[in-house]
Structures are given as C-alpha cells and as structure tokens.
C-alpha cells in the first residue's frame, strides 16, 4: 500500500475486498468497510455525486495494482447501503447516480449557518455561487459543492426557520437570520 493516501484502507490491496462475499456476516463486515472507504474517498476528493458507471473505472472501485474492481451490481449494493444510513441519495430511478453525503445536509447546514454567523453575514443576501465558490469560502468544507446539493443543505435551514432562499431568474440567493 505504499504511496496510497492515508484514507485508503489496508484491505484495498486484498483481492477478496473486490469480490462480494457470499456469507451474510462477511458481507456485512465488507459492506461496512466499503461504506467507510467511499465516504473517506469522497470527502478527500470533494465528490458530491457519483455516476456509478464512471466511478467503476476510478480508483475508488478499481485497484489496477492487483487488477481488481468491484462489479457494478455490488457498487449499487454499497450505495444502497449508504442510502439506508442517510449517507447517500439516489438521483435517478435507474440507480445510475447518487449524491454521497460524507457529511449530511443537516451537518453542512449547521456549518453554513455557523460560518454566516461567525462572519457577521446574517441578514445579508448571498448568492449560492458566493457560498460555494466565493473567495471567502475557500477554506470551508462546502467550497465547490454542486448547487443541487447546496440547495438540499439550505432547505434544512429553511425548515429550521432561520433562512429564506430567493430566486431571480436563473440566479438564487439565500438570507439567514
């Protein structure tokens, strides 16, 4: 495993890791390992959404050093498991793509609210682009977040009664109080 980032698990170089285990107890353990790895990988790479066909060839599900990859049906099972634990949400009925929540929308909503409070921006209307790509947010975990994902996070703040989202044409903004 020399040269791999620290979030890669030791078992990444173990060929059976890329084969769905038929024993229920073994599969449950393997699934937990995949869940942790997918979340760590997506967090390290700031991946908000996975297209499963594209991800199949990525280092996330393919280890070229040992010539192994996780089959697409098993990847779907892993993402199903992530969805069952509120760490993913399918974005298509055919289960070809999903949002991956390495932090839940609730967690990101709290971070955004705290950031706006700490930077005295409560009461100010900000565009969604300012939140995800602004010069002042480069150090924030949500920097670079895709707009649909950000909208899910802001919906949490709206539901809490501490924000309002505005739309003007194609542009959107948010005001937090």
UniProtKB/TrEMBL annotation:
Alphabetically ordered keywords of this record: Protein transport, Transport
Keyword Transport: yes
The UniProt record lists the keyword Protein transport: yes
GO CC annotations on file: ESCRT II complex
GO molecular function list: protein homodimerization activity; structural molecule activity
Pfam families (alphabetical): ESCRT-II
GO BP field: macroautophagy; protein transport to vacuole involved in ubiquitin-dependent protein catabolic process via the multivesicular body sorting pathway
SUPFAM superfamilies, per the entry: Winged helix' DNA-binding domain
Domain of life: Eukaryota
Protein family: Belongs to the VPS25 family.
Protein name: ESCRT-II complex subunit VPS25
Organism: Drechslerella stenobrocha 248
């Amino acid at each position: 495993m020399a040269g791999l980032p620290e979030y890669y698990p030791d078992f990444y170089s173990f060929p059976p890791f890329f084969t769905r285990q038929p024993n229920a107890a073994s599969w449950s353990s393997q699934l937990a390992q995949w869940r942790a790895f997918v979340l760590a990988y997506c967090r390290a790479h700031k991946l908000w959404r996975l297209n499963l066909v594209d991800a199949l060839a990525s280092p996330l599900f393919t280890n070229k050093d040992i010539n192994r990859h996780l089959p697409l049906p098993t990847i779907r099972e892993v993402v199903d498991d992530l969805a069952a634990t509120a760490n993913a949400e399918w974005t298509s009925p055919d289960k070809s793509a999903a949002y991956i929540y390495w932090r839940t929308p609730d967690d990101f909503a709290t971070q955004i609210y705290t950031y706006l409070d700490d930077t005295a921006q409560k009461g100010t209307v900000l565009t969604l682009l300012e939140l995800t790509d602004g010069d002042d947010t480069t150090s924030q975990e949500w920097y670079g977040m895709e707009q649909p994902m950000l909208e899910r996070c802001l919906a949490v703040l709206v539901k809490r009664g501490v924000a309002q989202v505005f739309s003007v044409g194609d542009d959107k903004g948010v005001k937090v109080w």
